[in-house]
Sequence to fold (359 residues):
Amino acid sequence: MLVNDKHLTTIWYDKAREVVKIIDQRLLPFELKIVELKTLEDFCFAIKEMQVRGAPLIGVTAAYGMYVASKTTKNFSELEKAGDSLKSTRPTAVNLSWAVDKIITKIKDMEKSNFQEIILSIANEIRDQDIVNCKTIGENGSKLIENIYKKTQKKVNVLTHCNAGWLAAVDWGTALAPIFIANQKKIPIHVWIDETRPRNQGFSLTAWELMHEKIENSLIVDNVGGHLMQNGMIDLCITGTDRTSLNGDVCNKIGTYLKALAAKDNDIPFYVAAPISSIDFNIKNGVKEIPIEERDPDEVSIIEGIDENNNRKKIKIIPEGSNCKNYAFDITPAKYITKLITEKGVVDSNEESISGLKN
Ligand code: MRU
Fold:
């Protein structure tokens, strides 16, 4: 998508320099910095510390991490270990193990000498396919927005949570892709952006993306959504997913569940944009089985921003000695999800429909 009217993606392989380049998302929205990832450690750090984040993007990053690891590993078992290191960086988004396992399965029976180029081409393929899938999700989801507009003939108000835009994928994104496409179709649209504490991906990333695409938006703190829904100020919600189980439960950024409850109570459609790479066909019951990442409590107790001199600052906001817990994701049970928007179409969030998406 666009940054200062120029097209940019979140990750790419620079053939000339033979390195992988990413945007360091920890610095947005105040600084746009491209960094190079050169070693397996660089890749693990980038995912764990959230230089890259968002389910599809961490899958693509892990795939390139496997390529870089294959340059120094001596045999298949060493490469498998590198895959385990990548998988252990973040536990919730299934795209990470999906990408690593795709590579492992493909090269299992090959000679070491053949590894590298094949892994690079799989990583490039995963990246390119992600762009196509996200754009298709955008086209499928934009029709839902268009239908509302056709009925009301009024600006469509969408609520989104966290960042499931192009910064969470390679390009287009998942939950924001229908919004980008609807905007290109000239459907009048306004987006309510949840702050998304503790890391504020809504404010720092989603707002930045929409501003560069010139899409009208308003920033709200996480507890506002219910009030807006009660007062007819939201027409639909669209969020992303880090892992969707076979029964249609959706795991996404902490706070998603509460928005889905409020949407149900107010009869507002709650859509989840779900690329098939984020569906875990091995997990039957999301509420019981999806692992929830717990992150450093410092993310809760310390907020970060810039001061009046544009210097980055960290500020502590809790009493000394307080105990913080930092659960990064929650599960929205399938019964609260109106439909899943996938690259294969808009489907019910239940086992029958989800099984039909496999392969
Ligand atoms: O912790 P993050 O920033 O990786 O969490 C991102 C989200 O929760 C997104 O909504 C999710 O990955 C779906 S993204 C396309």
Remarks:
- The first helix runs from residue 40 to 48.
- The two ends are 28 Å apart (CA to CA).
